[in-house]
Amino acid sequence: MGRSRTRSPQRPRAAMSARHRQGGDGRSRWNPGAAARSVLGGGSVAGQVFVLQLVIVLLLVIAAVVALVLQARQDSTQEARRRSLAVAESFANSPGIVEALNSPDPTAVLQPRAEAVRKQAHVDFVVVLNTDGIRYTHPKPDRIGKKFVGTIGPALAGKPVVEEIKGTIGQLVQAVVPVKDPGGRVVGLVSAGITTQHVGVAAEDELPLVLSAALAALALATGGAALVSRRLLRQTHGLGPHEMTRMYEHHDAVLHAVREGVIIVGEDGTLLLANDEAHRLLGLPGDAEGRHVLHIGLDPGTAELLASGRVATDEVHRVGDRLLAVNQRPTDRAGGPPGSVATVRDSTELRALSGRAEESRRRLNMLYDAGVAIGTSLDVTRTAEELTELAVPRFADFVTVDLFEPVLAGGHPDPAGTLRRAASTGIREDAPLYPRGRQIRFVASSPQGVSLAIGRPVLEPRLRDAPGWHAQDAERSGQVMEYGIHSLITVPLRAGALVLGVVSFWRSRKPEPFDTDELALAEELVARAAVSIDNARRYTREHSMAVTLQRSLLPRSLPDQNALEIAYRYLPAQAGVGGDWFDVLPLSGARVALVVGDVVGHGLHAAATMGRLRTAVHNFSALDLPPEELLTLLDELVGRIDQDEAQDEDSAPVTGATCLYAVYDPVSRRCTAARAGHPPPAVVGPDGGVEFWDVPVGPPLGLGGMPFESAERELPEGSRLVLYTDGLVEDRRHDIDVGLERLREALSRAGGSPEEMCGAVLESVRPARAADDIALLVARTRALPAGRIAEWPVPADPAAVGEVRAAVTRKLAEWGLEELTFGTELILSELVTNAMRHGGAPIKVRMLHERHLVCEVYDSSSTSPHLRYATMTDEGGRGLFLVAQLAERWGTRYLPAGKVIWAEQPIPPT
């Protein structure tokens, strides 16, 4: 089929093929049914190939079957010869054969043995003969005693013989071997054989397998021939010579007319085809086709790509003054020949346009990244660092951010003040620019000074030619120039009308200076960062105010008391100020109250609410109320606050406030506690054992409607009572049970003193980045020695007052407090007299020698005394007035059955 332009005589057949592959719209389509009929009909090249292959395969299969059958028969005969010889020799050499031959009746002895061997060895006979050829054994008894049919001469000479003969039982293969006595003399013969009928049966048994294999091979060969013919039919599309000639002519015309180079390379790197455009673009020689691509004068990069055959998509190679885009794909993906095809197009102008588009896309991406990456935290310094990290090295080689000093603390910038370098990032660390943290005051002629003054960016394309920049610091400017920094853009950080500082972009690696397009990009980048820095500044100011308010509301020092040795820690949240608080409140009777609370939320509102609750606890504790009653009053107070603030849309209710209130008495060593939605306290015994005190939990403050319950327990001296807020044991990654278990482990390992325990707990339990405030209070209990406690029961008789005064005088003398005798006698006389007159029995007096001298009078009445001024005509009413004048503090504490009136006097210094 050459390129003849004569009309093809196969046009009708080609038309039929065309109808097979074309639809109604004229587009090429593949018709599987028509293709099958074309193959089976044999009218096409594909059909003829199919028939030829089928005939060849059929002849090969028949020849193979015949050969296999003949080979099987030959193998069966050889097997029969080997088996008969082996059986005969085994029987001839078996024990007792010689003795049997010499016995009076050899047949009686040998016949059973020969038959057993015959059956076990699967042969047709085992015959024992004497040297005259007379049979002693035979499968058919009537043949015993008759002459053996076969050759026995070699066996009598001592050599075995195997032969194929026609014997008494038919055509057979038999072996005859001698039986020798110990002296080597032949005393008999043994013959074993297999009939040809059995040999043929063995071969016929293999025939089905051979035929099955032949049929399978024929089926596979037929299928393979069909696939080959179908592929040939698909590739030729049923075209005749004329159509194929025209197709190739069109192929050549299109190949050499397109404005894109086409190159086909073989598997071994040989250039198989290159169209005219490829010759023009690559400068190929006229004899390039048929030569290896590495030897046709291509540039190394392009030659390596074509020789490797790897996949490439729009890979740009410079050839002379052209930028060529090369696409390469393998040709064997759809069953084609191994190799690769590459297309080459001139993209010089397109590259220039795409370079500008790429630059624009890069700048847009950087602005998008600025909106995402800058302002992730509400820290002024960190936000400035994020700006520098984004711009280096994508936009500049070095970036510095200088902010006015008040901005770093959340205040308003002072245009006349100094700046501080808040962030500095570069491609190297040894640049001679001002370091981070350095205070700077820019001169008016410097680019930064001009930018701050006019509020607009300033471009210095060549720093060497900028005298105003050199005036800032002549020595350092020279170092910067020697380092290689040669171009600068300064942009003021503007947030509305405020100028927060200035950002400087420095270039060193790229030889081209900054241009006006880059100036616009820098201005847009800084404008986005300025919003985030201003937000961080505002947050810093509010955070500082909230921290100041919070710390002013927390106790600055612990009150003096002897009942507990106390240590505490307070850590504000990193994300904002919360509402955690604690307090230590001395009570009457040497008792001490411990309180820990938490207001959910952050900011000024939470801090202010915490201060109100702490003030309320101070006031309520002065009433000496039990813990559960104090929480009830606090709950009512929070409810009233919520009602009042519900009228104001700008105020938020106090939701989620919790509190734990505990009172420790060093006299009885008992502690009473109640909690409102707060985590339970931990108790560490003197032996180091840790347990969480199961104090009944009430609802958080402000919910109302549910009473609070308290729990009471005795704490041995030296026990540690641990109060804390939920920020210590709960975070987003762990459940509170996990936090409590970690707290238990930390307390069990901590030292004995409260200070050591606070440090150990925070070191092992505190989260790496606290999302909530943490308040921790550790108190080690002390007991008031029995020698400093004095108690007297008082009969309801006025005469007993004198006895009480006398006992008090003796006890004060024993304690070395004689200076307080007069005042103490007056106080106790008045309190005991009032208890007899207005109270009820039993009456008891207790005196405690602690930091103060405490006098307490118990009675069963719940009537509360009141301090008042007596008129000139009143006979009484002046007793409590005297008590108030003599005592430093006095008051009433109610009990479940009565009350206690107490008074404290300061102990004179020794």
TrEMBL record:
Primary location class: membrane
Compositionally skewed regions (Basic residues) per UniProt: 1-10
One protein family per Pfam: GAF
Domain PAS as annotated: residue spans: 249-315
Gene Ontology biological process terms, A to Z: phosphorelay signal transduction system
GO molecular function: ATP binding; kinase activity; phosphatase activity
Compartments, record wording: Cell membrane
Gene Ontology terms: cellular component: plasma membrane
UniProt keyword Hydrolase, yes or no: yes
Annotated stretches, region: Disordered: 1-31
Recorded superkingdom: Bacteria
Alphabetized InterPro entries for the sequence: Bact_Sigma-Reg, GAF, GAF-like_dom_sf, HATPase_C_sf, HATPase_dom, PAS, PAS-like_dom_sf, PPM-type-like_dom_sf
Protein name: Histidine kinase
Organism: Streptomyces fungicidicus
